[in-house]
Amino acid sequence: MSHLLLSCLFAPLLAFQSCQNAPLPAAADCANADSASEIQAVETPRTEAASQSEADLLAQTIYTRADSIRVVELLRTDPGKNDVLFYARQFLGLPYVGATLEQADPERLVVNLRQLDCTTLVETVWALALTRREGSDRFADYCRNLMRLRYWGGEMNGYLSRLHYFTWWMHDNLQKGLMTEVTDPAHCTAVINVENHYMSAHPGSYRFLKAHPEWVDSIARLEARYNGPDGHYLPEAATALNRRQLSFIHDGDLVAIVTKKDGLDYSHLGFAVWGRDGLLHLLNASSIHHKVVEEPKTLRQYLREHPSSIGIRLFRLAE
User: Fold this and answer.
1) Please, how many CA atoms are within 13 Å of residue 159, restricted to the half-sphere of its CB?
2) Lowest-pLDDT range, 31-40, 87-96, 146-155, 253-262?
3) How far apart, in whole angstroms, are the C-alpha atoms of residue 256 and residue 236?
4) Per-residue pLDDT averaged across 167-183, rounded?
5) pLDDT at 152 over 90
6) Which residue, among 120, 159, 124, has the nearest Cα to 20 in the 3D structure?
7) Who's near 244: CB < 8 A, 6+ residues apart?
8) In whole numbers, what is the pLDDT of the chain averaged over residues?
9) Looking at residue 319, what is its pLDDT?
10) 23: nearest Cα among 115, 91, 137, 111
11) In this predicted model, what pLDDT tens digit does every residue of 264-288 receive, in sequence order?
């Protein structure tokens, strides 16, 4: 993810995109205090047409000058061979805060590198890696990639254009070619049956659905469209296997935790890390630790402590 509820219960973006029904941060700090021209000092010049396009994008974006400078600094740092894991580790210790995307109506692109939940950690890291792979160190290019990941077809067009469930996020980003699924028929044997209905059943839990009840029917239609059998996952017990047995999983792969909670598809996101013990661990924005951490416990232990978590699905940022 996150955009989620109930301690990173990967439902919608208040579910998927917020990882918790947390109070909203003060909007004033995230308001567009910076214009496009204010960040030119840390970026290379572009043509007049390109600069205007960037100005239009940034006018639709909520960020602070500290966010823009930090993005450029990270893009100018050599991430080594594993860019995803490198960027994920740059956020270790940052505070976990949910619902940071629920700020503007009409919808605006939110950039926040100071507070993260499970989904915004993943989106932030992948947007950095995508931009670096493009050879860019520009904040506006980072914002474009963040928008590509977060919205249907990569275009922001209101609240309903946000990918509110991980199932939606997964299918749209697979279709856009931004990621591939990591699987193994010998181990990923459990069948996923998606039954998302949490958002349409609980619109009062979502700030903008509560304000716009006319949107609930659209959410319900999308839920129904993507419900049903939807591939396979690695069962919880199999996550105890060692690195040799699960060699198809790499450091930095996206881990999506499958849940059996009513109305939800996935409950949490993070990144796979092979520990010195030879077992899988999770780097995640944790509502339990209240910050971004590499879990000292194994992924198997983590899942067993959350009985609704029945396994994991894995994805990799496309080359």
Assistant:
1) 23
2) 31-40
3) 12
4) 98
5) yes
6) 120
7) 278
8) 88
9) 87
10) 115
11) 999 999 999 999 999 999 999 999 9
Token reading at 4: 């989620």
Q: Which residues contact 243 (CB under 8 A, 6 or more apart)?
A: 274, 278, 279
Q: How far apart, in whole angstroms, are the C-alpha atoms of residue 22 and residue 92?
A: 20
Half-sphere exposure of 9 (CA within 13 A, CB side): 19
Structure confidence by residue, pLDDT tens digits, 68-78: 999 999 999 99
Q: Which residue type does 294 have? A: E
Chain-centroid distance of CA 56 in Å reads 24
The closest of 24, 258, 58, 116 to 126, measured between CA atoms, is 116
Scan for tokens 């208040």, then name that residue.
Answer: 14
Nearest to 147 by CA among 262, 58, 14, 84: 58
Judge contact between 125 and 271, C-beta under 8 A. yes
| Whether residue 185 has a cis bond before it, omega within 30° of 0 | no
CB 267 within 8 A of CB 259: yes
Distance from CA of residue 94 to its chain's centroid? 15
Average pLDDT over residues 195-224: 97
The structure's pTM equals 0.88
The DSSP code sequence of the chain is --B-BTTTB-SSSSSTBTSS-PPPPPHHHHS--S-GGGGGGGS----HHHHHHHHHHHHTEE--HHHHHHHHHHHTS---S-HHHHHHHTTTTPBB-S-TTTT-SS--EE--SSSB-HHHHHHHHHHHHHHHHTT---HHHHHHHHHHHHBGGG---SGGGB--SHHHHHHHHHHTTSEEEE--TTT--EEEEE---HHHH-GGGSHHHHH-GGGHHHHHHHHHHH-EEEEEEEEGGGGGS-TTTTTT--TT-EEEEEE-STT-SEEEEEEEEE-TTSSEEEEEEETTTTEEEE-SS-HHHHHHTSTTEEEEEEEEE--
CB 119 within 8 A of CB 127: no
Exposure on the CB side of residue 205, measured as CA atoms within 13 A: 21
